[in-house]
Amino acid sequence: MSALISLKDVCKSFGGIVVADHISIDIQRGEILGLIGPNGAGKTSLFNLISGLFPVDSGTISVAGTPLDRLPLYQRARLGVARTWQHMRLFSSMSVLENLLVAPSNYPGEQIYQIIFRNKQTKTADIAIRDRAMGILKRMQLESIAHTNVNDITFGQQKLVGLARALMNDGECLLLDEPMAGVEGNAYETMKTIVREEAAAGRAVCVVEHNVSFIKDLCNSAVFMASGKILERGSVETLLSSKTLADLYFGA
Amino acid sequence: MEYLVSLAVLVGIYVILSASFNLIIGFGGLISIAHPIFFALGAYTTGLLAIHFELNPFLSVFAGGAVAFCSSVMLSLPSLRISGDYLLITSIGFQLGMLEVIKHLGFTGGASGLGNIPNVVSGSLRSAVFAVASCVIAAAVVWVIRWLLTGPYGRVISAMRDDELAFSALGRNAMMIKLALFAIGSGFAGVAGGIYAYYYQYISPDQFEILQSAMLLTMVVVGGMGSHVGPVVGAVLLLLLPQAISFLNLPPSVMAPLQGVIFTTLVIVFLFWRPQGLVAPSQHTTSKEV
Questions:
Q1: Residue A35 belongs to what H/E stretch?
Q2: Which single residue of A42, A122, B55, B187 could bond B49 by disulfide (Cβ 3.0 to 4.6 Å)?
Q3: What is the pLDDT of residues A184-216, one digit of tens each?
Q4: SS3 state at A14
Q5: Which residues of chain A does B287 touch, with a Cβ-Cβ cutoff of 8 Å?
Q6: B162 and A75 in contact by Cβ < 8 A?
Q7: Is the pLDDT reported for residue B288 higher than 60?
Q8: The complex's ipTM?
């Protein structure tokens, strides 16, 4: 089976700082890959390279065989790269529901001509999207806050909304940047269930996370990064039992 | 009475200007102050077409809007790469540069302005006709902007304004939205310019200077950025205020600078005490309807 998302020999440096040093990773559909390593290892930078915040220096990134190089951010998203952000980046003037409504890949009414010449169709499509968004919110038990502004909900809920928005985005590659940081209780369990279900439904998931038990519970395999390099890959247990890696991660 | 009617013409023109400016900076979050230059392009296009080709007034006002609509690309293209303070600086440069061009071209009348724009409405009701026309068009502009922004399109604009990066990462094309917002806003400003040219029959570059930008910005900020009624309130208030002061019978040498002082003070006062403006934008404009 060919990988859904594939990085080959990806390199990137900012001045003297190397954030990606010959990185090669393949993620299959249905796989949940953990990306672990100390702060500054280049994990988030790797996500930024995949989603297109800045171009790679060399190497290729492809989704379902289509190379992404030189494509802008929004076109990569349309090809299937959906992501969440460490600091959520929710649309702050909008409600929870509205944050989801702007996300679908087939959004009706993004262009002004659609509003002017196809107003009726746009409205109908908008109602369908609304139903879908409410469905996702229901799965996350967030439907009661659908009309609340995203600034007025708890941190854990904001993290869930970030994930919900990424799911609404339809992308088959799901990049989750520290989904668990600061999340506890119900939200924690919900997050785990949803990520598992989405992978089972055929998405390729990559998770950057410092919460080791979350990675252990969820990921089939993991990659350990430090200083922009992949030091080791394998099962989460193997990686964490290695003394060199544990020293690097937790400080010797 | 004549005085009040001519004030109504100005109110109509400024409501068009501030509502369309609000579309760009208030709703779109694109901080440009070059709006008066599109007002000027509309006025000059209309004036020149009227003088040289005696074109039907409706057509030439429409052409003024069209020229402003198309030339907005000159400002929206840089805004695709830069935003915030940098866009503001670029827009100031653009406005000053374009004004210099107008001042140095022969056919625009240069610095002394373009006069002899033909009168299209004569008789004692001239001002009344213009007042009705400009207020009706102003109402239409406010309505069109409101219509565009309620529902799916308004939602993407809010999202883009809130966080452009997260917005693009969802596959939304911010470029098309910025181009459209600048084009529509500038097009309306061009229409306002057309009415202005026909009514005053004389236009000159100094009517479109930075002071005009400051005035429009004050109208939008005081009225309420990102609200539909705000700019209307702001425009009416800021046009009436100087008139109210003029009853104080101050000498002109004091009056002119006093107006500038009032605009600046108002902006500062509002930014500190009521940054949302007199009419605050409603929070969930797009989620309640349908």
A1: strand A32-36
A2: B55
A3: 888 889 999 999 999 999 999 999 998 888 899
A4: strand
A5: 94-95, 97-98, 101, 147
A6: no
A7: no
A8: 0.93
Cα–Cα distances (Å) from B155 to A19, A42, A93, A166, in that order, read 36, 34, 10, 17
**pLDDT tens, residue by residue, B243-264:** 777 777 778 788 778 877 887 8
Domain ranges of chain A: 5-250
pLDDT at B283: 56
Looking at the complex, report in whole angstroms how far the Cα of residue B222 sits from the nearest Cα belonging to chain A.
20
Which tens digit of pLDDT belongs to each residue from B182-203? Answer: 999 999 999 999 999 999 999 9
CB atoms under 10 Å from CB of B73, counted, come to: 12
β-strand A5-14 against A17-27: which pairing, if any?
antiparallel
Contacts of A114 in chain B (CB under 8 A): 152-153
Distance CA B195, CA A11 (A): 58
Count of CB pairs separated by less than 8 Å, A with B? 116
pLDDT band for position B2 (50/70/90)? confident
The pLDDT value recorded for residue B105 is 93
Closest CA to A165 of A91, A57, A216, A113: A91
Q: What is the pTM of this model?
A: 0.90
Contact between residue B157 and residue B176 where contact means Cβ atoms under 8 Å apart? no
Where do the structural domains in chain B lie, given as residue ranges?
2-207
> CA distances (Å), A118 to each of A122, A123, B88, B178, B181, in order?
6, 9, 34, 21, 19
Q: Does B167 touch chain A (CB under 8 A)?
A: yes
A122–B151 C-beta distance less than 8 A: yes
> Cβ separation of B153 and A94 shorter than 8 Å?
no
Q: What is the dihedral of CA A15, A17, A23, A28, to 10 degrees?
A: -100
Q: What's the CATH number of domain A5-250, 3.40.630.40, 3.40.50.300, 3.50.50.60, 1.10.443.10?
A: 3.40.50.300
Q: Chain A contacts of B182, Cβ < 8 Å?
A: none
